Amino acid sequence: MSFSAMPRLPSVLGIVSAVLMFFAAATFAQAAEPVKISRDDTALDLTRTTDIYANQGEAFQVSTAAAADGIRRRIEVRASSPSHQGDWAVFALSNVSEEQLERVIVAPHFRLVNSKVFWPDLGSQRIISITPSEGFALDRIASPDADVFRITLNPGATITFVAELSTPALPQIYLWQPDAYKDSVNSFTLYKGIVLGIAGLLAVFLTILFVVKGTSMLPAAAALAWAVLAYICVDFGFLDKLISVTSSDERIWRAAAEVALASSLVIFLFTYLNLNRWHVHLGYATLAWVAGLVLLGGVAIYDPSVASGIARLSFALTGTVGILLIVYLGFNRYDRAILLVPTWALLLVWLFGGWLTVTGQLDNDIVQPALGGGLVLIVLLIGFTVMQHAFAGGAYQQGLFSDLERQSLALTGSGDTVWDWDVARDRVVTTPDISTRLGLEQGSMHGPVRNWLPRLHPDDRDRFRATLDVLLEHRRGRLNHEFRIRAEDGHFHWLQIRARPVLGSNGEIIRCVGTVIDVTEQKNSIERLLQDAMHDNLTGLPNRQVFLDRLQSVLTLAPSDGHLRPTVMAIDIDRYKQVNDSLGIAAGDNILIALTRRLRRLLKPQDTLARLAGDQFGLILVSERDPGKVADFADAVSKAIMVPINFANREIVLTASIGLASWVDQQESAPGLLADAELAMYRAKRAGGNRVEPFRPAFRSTGTDRLQIETDLRRAIERRELTLAYQPIIRLVDGEIAGFEALMRWEHPKRGSIPPSEFIPIAEMSDLIGPLGLFAMERAASDLTSWQAQTGSLPIFVSVNVSSAQLLNADLYNDVRALLQRTQVAPGQLKLELTESLMMENPEQARLVLAKLKETGLSLALDDFGTGYSSLGYLTQFPFDTIKLDQSLVRDATDKRAVLLRSVIAMARALEMDVVAEGIQTDEDAAELAKMGCHFGQSYLFGPPATTDAIGRLLKERFPLTKRA
To answer: N or C: which end of the chain has fewer CB within 10 A?
Structure first.
């Protein structure tokens, strides 16, 4: 076996040796082809002839280029820096001249050319060291922008150079003649200095301009100029002259500068075009865009390449969106967009050149500084553009414009349409075209003036034609004419022409020029004002003033016409307020409209029906003069009102109190006759309503009494003759005093005690209820302060009733606040009581006023709970914290009393409201209510209303230790 295997041994060894030679060959880099250098070569690009070997480790072997003797040698180079990552570059140079040549190898840190859009190469140190195949490592020349090494080539020498790279990317490597390299650096330095100086001056100038003028576009332009200056400083290598910057820091600064440039361009576009005025969503989109770029500035610290790539995309997107907006707004005649066209066109050219550069399609050494200069040129154009707007209107502000310009500016600002009638050619032209405003085809109202006549209102055609004829005939004057013209939709528009004729050399009118404006809204407003001034808005009937005017006209004619004997009827609907309270205001309005239609059917053309007040009508009966027929007519009116009205599946039956007053005295005036009819109506109402009451002179004494009471009440308020009595409110749990209800009292000097039920309605019908209510609140707060001064702080409250006139008065809130500040009473100790009927008069106004009063800390109580129909709804709609059960509920003798009281009290407690029971008659009732959870009780069982001094003595007895506490 062993001998038979021996012949195969040589072949196996040959295969193994061949494999080893293959791997050995793969381990060594191939020899580079040398670049021949002569004495006249000042600059050679070695980028394409340089071979890059990535990830080769710390030791790198390469075959040298063939020397003059044709021998290729193998050299090994080891990394000199611990940060080396195994990347190497190899190139070879051959001196074909007969002289020793001095050259420098230059590898720039950053090159915009071919830096890419996505994850761009933002620059760094490129070469750590260079080792030649002969001699020692090359000497580095200090340079902030590039890796520069000095080499010396002997005549005829061919040397292979191995460069130890810090990154696998080597954008460019150049071989320069030292003096030529120095001249190139100096020339570029001069150019960069000029560009940098212009950029700095622009930034400073725009900033100063912003401080001087302060318009919004100037800070945006200044921010863009400073961003360009920052970018130029980084790109031209000026930053390291100011601060110490490493190669890694320079990448962060470059990315941050590009982000700032992109964001400032977005802000400038938004601010200059004022995009927020076109659509609010554009403002939101811009804000989100800028916010994203600001966050991108933080990303630049951790990954500059990602931040720079996104910034470059944003820059391109801003240019695209900008041109679309400029085109759109330009077609909409936005002057700012039109003025930005040259600047944005240059920006698009710059973007195109930048795209060619970063993708490597445009490759030369001047493109990068040229793009920097282009940025400065763009900012320069932007500066000119914003200056044009910043100083626009300066002449206008100083008054430096002609009368013609002033008139043109005023006409444009007014928005009026110019009406130009060429009389010689009989052609009318309007600018802008009024046809479009009327819904007609464009230009349809242009042409001969007779073309306007068919569209004019029939009542206005002759007057329009006559006005123009008079103007042409007299050859002077002004045209000021209003007329109606029919639009395409059939509606008529009121137009007003104000024009002035222009005379020719022969004295004839050759032209008539002026303005035409649409005054439809003004005409409609005047008609509505006249209608509202003379008629009731709800029923369309004449109001009280028109009624009196017509009645006076009839009374003026009556003495001379023996057949004219007018009768005035005052009609008041009984229980109309209850209908409003139960069914709502809308139902009450519908009922009034229905009654108006019924009454109109009874009238003859010469009679007049008017609405004098809320539920009060007035009627002038001229068609009947016989007393019997007048009485029959009044009875017919009463029966017409009594006919049932169906509303919301309910049948409503109403009655009326009617007062009659016939004309008998020739000296009688319209207000006097109406007052007599109203006195008769009030007498019918006091008699129970649903009746017709003729006027008798004795009724006037009653009216005189009311006037006397009103006069005396006014004097009593001024002299502070009114007083308050306080009825105790007891805590049912322990029988202690919890508070008092303030009740108004009036001791008349002659008539004695006048009950509130008599003078309060008179105050509500006059203007006295406001001062009366304010007096009650002030006196209650003053008495409470006086009691606390005698006994110390008391755990009690005082309730004051509020009238409807006070609640609907806008000054109530301010009066209460001033009262609290003046008396220093704790808001929680003052409680306002209101009935549900008060809020029915104007629920929305009541809700707003009560909400504001609640904010002051006052307590609000709903009085007479259970007597109306809407109380449960008010508990959630209005901010009440207390309800007062009406005595009709407490004294109910039916079996359901306990169930009803328990339910109401439980509901109130669930709503976190206090409950006060009125009209408690026995101690057993008080105990029962306490068990149900009722908090307080108020009735004569606990004490009658007492004077202020009596209450003071009572509090001293009940709270003896409060003062010392």
So the answer is: N
Q: Give the containing element (helix H, strand E) for 755.
A: none
- Amino acid present at 965: A
CB neighbour list of residue 179: distance below 8 Å, 6 or more residues apart? none
Q: Are 72 and 63 in contact (CB under 8 A)?
A: yes
Q: Name, of 111-125, 309-323, 839-853, the range with top average pLDDT.
A: 309-323
Residue 230 to residues 301, 498, 876, Cα–Cα distance (Å):
17, 60, 64
- Contact of 615 with 579, CB cutoff 8 Å: no
pTM score above 0.85: no
253, amino acid identity = W
Residue 276 per-residue DSSP state: G
Reading the block at residue 440, the tokens are 């007609």
The whole-angstrom separation of Cα 598 and Cα 77 is 119
pLDDT digits (tens, 9 = 90+) for 734-752: 888 999 999 988 887 777 7
Q: How far apart are CA 35 and CA 262, in angstroms?
A: 43
Straight-line distance from the first to the last Cα atom of the chain, in angstroms, rounded to the nearest whole number: 127
- Which residues fall within 8 angstroms of residue 16, CB to CB, at 6 or more apart? none
Q: Within a 13 Å sphere around the CA of 534, how many CA atoms are in the beta-carbon half? A: 9
Q: Which residue has the tokens 């969106």?
A: 321
Q: Of 632, 668, 633, whose CA–CA distance to 558 is shortest?
A: 668
Beta bridge partners of 740: 728, 798
| Mean pLDDT value across residues 845-854 | 83
827: Cα separation from own chain's centroid: 36
Task: Report which secondary-structure segment, H or E, holds 77.
Answer: strand 74-78
Q: Buried b vs exposed e over 30-47: b needs ≥16 C-beta within 10 Å?
A: ebbebbebeeebeebebe
CA distances from 841 to 580, 616, 711, 813 (A): 8, 16, 27, 18
Which stretches of 420-519 are DSSP H helices?
A: 434-437, 458-474
Q: Which residue has the tokens 């004419």?
A: 481
- 């005017």: which residue's tokens? 549
**Short-list 345, 329, 202, CA closest to 272:** 329
Of 65, 86, 89, 61, whose CA–CA distance to 75 is shortest? 61
| 840, 877 Cβ separation under 8 angstroms | no
